[in-house]
Structure formats: C-alpha cells, structure tokens
Design goal:
The chain is an alpha/beta fold. Helices cover about 45% and strands about 15% of the residues. Strands 1, 2, 3, 4, 5, 6, 9, 10 and 11 form a nine-stranded parallel sheet that branches. Helix 3 packs across helix 4, helix 6 runs parallel beside helix 11 and helix 11 (about 235-245) packs across helix 12 (about 265-275).
Length: about 280
C-alpha cells in the first residue's frame, strides 16, 4: 500500500467498531458518509479485530480501513494473516493491519513487548503479509525504528506535535507517520478522557520522555499537559492543531473527536472538520 492511499486526514473511533447488530446499519451509513466527506481512512478503535473492518469495507469504495490497534496477544499471527489475505482479496489496497503490544495492565501474558512484536512480524512475513500493508503502534525510539523497518510506518497515540517531530527524525523521510490527534470541547472533557491513559505506563513514560513532569501527570493532568495533548475548542482550533502536526512531519492526521460515550458517532463534528479542512475539495 502506498501511504498516499490514506490521504491527509482520517478518523479514529471506537464507535465504528461494533458487534451490536442494532448499531451496524448506523455504522455502515457513517462509513459511507465519511468517504463522501473526503476522509482518507477509518481507524477502528478499541482493540479491533480485522473482522470489524468488513462491514465498513463492504459499503465504501475507496477509503482505507485500519485496525487501530489490534493487540498481537489476542490471536496467532497465522490466523490474522489468513484474515488479511481474505480482506485484501476482496478489497485490494484498502485494509491496513494496525498492530500493537498494548499494555501490561490489560494483557495477562504481556512480556517483552518489543521481542514479541518482532516475532509476530516474522510470522506475518512467513505467511505472506506485505510489510506495507501493516502499521505499528509506536511511541519510543526502538518501536519507531521497528515500524520504519518492518511496516508501512507508525501510528503513535496520545502524542504532541513535538513528539511527531522526534518520531519523524527517527523514522526518516519514507515511512508513514500517522499520529492520533485528540479534539475536545473543553479541558473538563479532555481530563475525563485522559484519566484511563494516565494509568498506563507506556503512555506516561512517553509523556515524561516528551518533557512533561510527574506534576503534569498528577490530578488528572495539568493544564499544560491538557493543552498540549488535545485541541481544545471548535473546528478552527482543531485545524490549527492538525496543521501543527503536519508541520512537525506527519503524513496523515488521525482525528479522534472526544466524547463522553466513546461508542457514539460524532457525525456533526466530523462534518464540521471536513468542511474547515476542505477535505472534499
């Protein structure tokens, strides 16, 4: 897959990943509208399986659907390779396998995440999954280097433009850099969203590595951290923040509109962002 297939802007949403038959039609309609609005990729949140991509691929023609991010501990590489082959046979060039090691608090067998990822990629290679049809969740330098060498590129989550500049320097010019960018209405909403991530050492270590302090991480996050990690305000503020990520070296902006219920589909906000970003032009 050419990284240009993703275009410049995609959306990240847990709501686009559903196993509820009652919600499926709404998800399909949202996917089709997001394609019409000019978004280039749909990133399925909530540790999705490749199967979750099927309903969205079936109702769209161009847009890329990515797992953001499938946990490598959840299923053997050989099985995922078979699913990848099936999806790409029916929808060539439109499925991107996003992979990550997740977090020790969520995975009982979590151990040596870097080595585990290397082994998983080795198995995908053996099974014939092209490296340019997969992308890695990557924050630190070792995983970023692995993403650049063994996949299309990196999909960092909960990062700032400054992290993106560092990631671009680590990756070099060629690999995809697709940071997730959080958009929230206000600081209170942002803090509510951030709370779970401040319990995950992978994220807190990266934030400390990015220049924040333990004080910034305390009590739900300092104003400094909130303002750096979120675009707070309306669509014009989001546009400026997205441009800052592009200026820092991003190829593709993955927008997450923060909501109290993360399974909601924030169609109005997606429409407003598509308009202010002139995606359909």
């Amino acid at each position: 897959m050419d990284k240009a297939n993703l275009k410049r802007v995609g959306v990240w949403s847990i709501g686009l990943r559903t196993e509820d038959p009652a919600a499926l039609e709404g998800v399909r309609e949202a996917a089709a509208e997001l394609e019409r609005l000019g978004y280039g990729a749909l990133w399925l949140g909530g540790s999705p399986h490749p199967d979750h991509a099927v309903p969205l691929l079936e109702v769209t023609e161009r847009i890329v659907v990515a797992t953001g991010i499938f946990r490598i501990w959840d299923e053997a590489a050989s099985s995922i390779a078979a699913k990848h082959a099936e999806l790409t046979r029916h929808h060539p060039g439109r499925f991107l396998l996003g992979l990550g090691a997740s977090h020790s608090a969520l995975i009982s067998q979590y151990a040596k995440p870097y080595s585990a990822m290397v082994s998983y990629l080795d198995e995908l290679d053996t099974a014939g999954v092209p490296k340019d049809e997969r992308v890695l969740a990557a924050l630190g330098p070792r995983m970023l280097e692995l993403a650049g060498a063994r996949s299309l590129g990196a999909h960092p989550y909960l990062v700032t433009p400054e992290h993106t500049a560092t990631a671009r320097a680590t990756l070099g010019d060629g690999p995809l850099l697709a940071p997730e960018i959080k958009v929230a209405a206000d600081r209170e909403q942002a803090r509510g969203h951030l709370a779970i991530y401040l319990q995950m050492p992978n994220y807190t270590r990266n934030l400390l590595r990015s220049g924040f302090t333990e004080e910034d991480l305390a009590d739900g996050g300092s104003d400094r951290l909130i303002d750096a990690a979120f675009a707070i305000g309306g669509p014009e503020v989001a546009r400026e923040r997205i441009e800052a990520f592009f200026d820092a070296g991003a190829d593709h902006a993955v927008i997450q509109v923060v909501a109290t219920d993360r399974t909601n589909l924030p169609l109005d906000q997606w429409r407003e962002l598509a308009e202010v970003l002139a995606l359909a032009s």
